[in-house]
Design goal:
The protein has helices spanning 15-35, 58-70, 86-93, 107-113; strands spanning 2-10, 38-47, 74-76, 99-101. The chain has 117 residues and is α/β, with parallel strands linked by helices. It has a single domain, classed as Resolvase, N-terminal catalytic domain (Rossmann fold), CATH 3.40.50.1390. The relative contact order is 0.20.
Length: 117
Amino acid sequence: MKPIIEYRRVSEYTPIAIAESLLKQQVVNRIFAGQHGFEIVEVIEETASGNLGMYHREGLMLALEKARKLQCPVLVSNIDRISRDASYVSEVFRRGVEIVTCEPISEFEKTLLGVTG
């Protein structure tokens, strides 16, 4: 099994919405990890707007740092868990840590983000 860091983010601030979103992400991520030979070695959750700058997202920065140290990717259920802003997501991709998404990134999205492969 290959190690992977699981990152979950919610921007809703009502307790029910937070719990539902985190549970949905957990289920999707666990199924994906099992089907693709990953072992989730750590889970990092964050309640923050995707519009916050990278350096104001402590959970995301922690996930990237831990993944860098373990030389493993970060798993998100969907690329929008990083952000819905293409320039922000591109910046995260340029940090040198592989981001694995359960939901495939379209070729159009890859072009917007400057992602190859």
